[in-house]
Amino acid sequence: MYASTPDPQLSQRDAEFMALIPNAEPDRMFARYMVDNTTGEPAGVIVVETHQHLLYYTMPDNKAMRYGVALGNESFGWTGEAVVDHKAEWPAWNPPAEMIARWPQVHQTAGGWTNPLGARALYLFQNGKDTLYRIHGTNEPEKIGRSVSSGCIRMRNIDVIDLFNRVPVGTKVIVR
Fold first, then answer.
1. Which residues are catalytic, by number?
2. What is the mean pLDDT of residues 13-28?
3. What is the pTM of this model?
């Protein structure tokens, strides 16, 4: 087993917001670790293994950073390939009309610590079009390792900040 990596440097705003969000200690299976790259993908690719609830960011020297994730429940899960079109810190949340129809209690939320997208979001596009799926933080870290979302890939806030800092716009994302 590899040692967990240190947490990324947080801005004052990050530290203030994150102090307000519940912090669940992850099951060791879903903690952040540097591991051998077993994805078969070259360095610089994000791979989400949905059956394992794990996300890998492949790195040089056949290594990968592994993170635990929460995924879409069976009826809302998504698989395929995309690219990170853009990234945002403490993004605003604009739920799609289909989600509002299913759950009328949801509503648009400004960026900040109460936002369901958490500390960071990576916006996934296919062929120049928004998939409406994101890799993002969460204000429900206790759900990492489960299939509970409406399709997005949720990460602990400290982990999505780490991934956000590593990943450039244009990064290939494979969800399988």
1. 136, 152
2. 81
3. 0.87
